[in-house]
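User: Teach me something about this protein's shape.
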Amino acid sequence: MFHVIGITPVAPIRLEPSHRSEMVSQLLFGEMAELLNRDGDFLQVRTVYDQYVGWIQANQVTDVLESWLEKSKTEGYIDQVTTIEVAGQPMVVYPGTPVWRSDTLAGIPVDYGAVSPVKPKRRSRKNLQEATLTYMNTSYLWGGKTVAGTDCSGFVQQVYKLFGTDLPRDAYLQAEVGEVVGFLEESRPGDLAFFDNAEGRITHVGILLGPNKIIHASGQVRIDMIDSQGIKQKVSRQRTHFLRIIKRVW
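Assistant: First, the predicted structure itself:
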């Protein structure tokens, strides 16, 4: 089994081996993936973190030698946008980026400077609010999962990563995790609310901050009102999403 590791701040993972193909997810700096196939300048990979399969540009990753992997491991994650030094040059990295306990990243010199990697955060209302507000006003981006652009499930996945909870990449798969909460009034901050379309397919997810408040990525990461029917936009009061299920994942 061969692995590669991301060497750019954010590398698009695409549905097909083409720059014109839609982006379905992203590989952050220092995230690993299993190599499955090659097609010209693109590699088909399966991400180690969430087992997501797609195509990535070959020059945005580098091979991982088993000898390096055996003596290196991650210490935690970065939880703020920060600058590190890679091969002697500055690089901006994003929340959710792993910090490796090594002087190199698969042979590439890396200096994390004064960055303190985050161990799993304590699950509290205050910490949840701080973690989610880091993404506030981030533009919606299909397949994105950073403060430079994120989709709804990418936002949820990256926030929960900081609390030591691993979630799948897509909303409909995230909905299969955890225990059902019967009523909105019984929800707790940190519960996940899922929403479906006219065909009954789950297409959206957000994080409850209270029984009538939700933070989610829709146009941008925003805080809106929620009731037993679904989401109402805070300003327009328009109904935008219809509630399907609430799950408790921690």
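Now, about its shape. The chain has a mean pLDDT of 95. The helical segments are 66-71, 125-133, 152-161, 171-174. If you'd like, I can walk through any region in more detail.
User: That's plenty for now, thanks!
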